[in-house]
Design a protein that fits this description.
It is a single chain. By secondary structure, the protein is α+β, with helices and mostly antiparallel strands. It folds into two domains: 191 residues, CofE-like (60s Ribosomal Protein L30, Chain: A, 2-Layer Sandwich), CATH 3.30.1330; 61 residues, CofE-like fold, CATH 3.90.1660.10. It has five helices and twelve strands. Strand 8 and strand 9 form a beta hairpin. Helix 1 packs across helix 4. The termini are far apart. It is an enzyme of class 6 (ligase). Keywords: GTP-binding, Ligase, Magnesium, Manganese, Metal-binding, Nucleotide-binding, Potassium. Its EC number is 6.3.2.31.
Length: 284
Amino acid sequence: MSAAPTGPDAAPPGDAAAPAGGGATAPADVTAPAVLVMAQAPDGVPVITRGDDLAARLTPALAALRWPDGTTGVAEGDVVVVASKIVAKAEGRLVAARDAAARDAVIAGETVRVVATRQRPDGGVLRIVENRQGLVMAAAGVDASDVPAGTALLLPEDPDASARRLRRGLHARLGVRPGVLVTDTAGRPWRRGLVDMAIGAAGVRVLADHRGRRDAYGRELNVTVMSLADEIAAAAELVKGKAAGRPVAVVRGMGHAVSLEDGDGAATLIRPPAEDMFRRGVSD
């Protein structure tokens, strides 16, 4: 996928991605658009189970990636995007849920606030809730797919901390310091369909604030703040896929959004209550 640069703020070609194996460089202007963005999901990621060192398990598949320019592996400025499911499995977040009632109890245990409920055609109840991580999601993010029968998988307890640990582990093994996103799938108000979004981040500037800049007609932008982390997460999902057995992808070309510091994480993407227009859901 590619994005054509426009206007005087377009990044020069040399800023699209750092060379493989290169040293850390100062990131480009986070507001500058990428010249070219590539996303690649490696094959060969092993099954992840409780207690696995996730960085060690992912390193062989990531190191084997081959890019169109002839480079291999992960480079400075790349973003490693990892499905929350394998992070949660490595962290031992699998719990017993032998039937629907038990799963409902697990969801209730992860719920901080109920936003909306709706009866399903099969007689069950869909619950949109705020979970312990502060995310508003269906079923609190509790997942019963791709796990052993009679179990359910909770989200990572602290996705930002998970992203920071994975980043440290990859840095130690690959010799470069990529950005890391932990992602999960969610719906959005007013829109059909699900998209992947960032629930954990390390070394990625999660927001690009365009306020104060001017559009092509000279008008000042007052409300435009882009979620870079969610855009990268959605791009990575195009090559990961929900059922393709590829739970990790590398996005190249977003080096202007990668920082040496871990940053504040994806928790900063959660709207505070005063800004949340959908805090109380209504379903007829």
